[in-house]
From TrEMBL:
Source lineage: Eukaryota, Fungi, Fungi incertae sedis, Mucoromycota, Mucoromycotina
Cellular component terms (Gene Ontology): cytoplasm; nucleus
Protein known as: SRR1-like domain-containing protein
Every SRR1-like domain range: 61-229
InterPro entries per the UniProt record, alphabetical: SRR1-like, SRR1L
Pfam families: SRR1 (PF07985)
Family under the similarity heading: Belongs to the SRR1 family.
Source organism per UniProt: Rhizopus oryzae (Mucormycosis agent)
Length: 247
């Protein structure tokens, strides 16, 4: 700029000093192996915020209200979620399990099992009032009351085992499974492999009702290909059971 005599002047810049406190501030990464209960709870709170703020969640809750609230579940059984301490996907899946328990107002218990769960995972479950299944049932839990099986991305054999433990006209209608779509396996796999690894999926697809989850969330690997699958009593006729008593 110029002054009143026409000389060019240079304006001095003033630099804002950085406080000593800010200069010395360090950002550190804490490995999940070193997490405490408070650390994992903070991470889950963060995941819940992201999930609840998504369009996926808003659509999913409407699906739950339409297709799950009409059923009076007594218990929730969670298989195969993984380690909340080690896995981002498991963290989101665990958060959704807690949301389901609250939304459905489950009067009974919430059970959980995965062989990869750490001691911190187990501590987390205990403080959230979740009963840890002590031995690997391999999915073969026989039920007497309406039960929601929450099984995101489990192996197809595990789904088949859950069906096999309740494979009769009285128990199967009490089973609701949130898991991978059975029709993704049946029809796309060799029948001999299905018979060997997951025989109960084959007849199950003929009588189940399926409601798919919304399409995408996060990296599309957390809840992709999941659905709500039920087995209405009116579809499992006498003829069905006569044909499928033994696979």
């Amino acid at each position: 700029m110029t002054d009143q005599d026409g000389f060019v002047t240079v304006e001095k810049f003033k630099y804002k000093s950085v406080s000593k406190k800010k200069r010395n501030k360090k950002y550190t990464f804490k490995d999940s192996d070193d997490w405490t209960l408070e650390d994992i709870q903070a991470k889950l709170k963060e995941r819940k915020g992201v999930l609840e703020g998504s369009r996926f969640y808003k659509e999913l809750i409407e699906i739950f209200k339409q297709h799950l609230l009409t059923t009076k579940f007594n218990d929730i059984v969670c298989y195969g979620i993984g380690s909340m301490q080690k896995s981002k996907n498991a963290q989101y899946q665990f958060v959704l399990a807690l949301i389901l328990r609250e939304l459905l107002n489950i009067p009974g218990k919430m059970y959980i099992f995965d062989p990869v769960m750490t001691e911190l995972d187990k501590e987390l479950c205990k403080v959230n009032g979740i009963e840890i299944i002590k031995e690997d049932e391999q999915g073969k839990r026989s039920i007497k009351q309406s039960t929601l099986f929450y099984m995101p991305h489990c192996g197809r054999g595990l789904y088949s085992n859950t069906l096999s433990a309740n494979w009769n006209k009285d128990q199967l209608p009490l089973v609701t499974i949130i898991g991978n779509r059975f029709d993704m396996y049946v029809g796309s796999q060799l029948e001999k492999d299905l018979i060997r690894e997951c025989p109960y999926l084959i007849p199950a697809v003929d009588i189940l009702d399926m409601i798919s989850f919304p399409k995408e969330f996060d990296n599309n690997q957390v809840f992709n290909d999941l659905s709500i699958q039920t087995f209405p009593a009116e579809k499992a006729t006498t003829e069905f059971w006569d044909k499928n008593k033994i696979i």
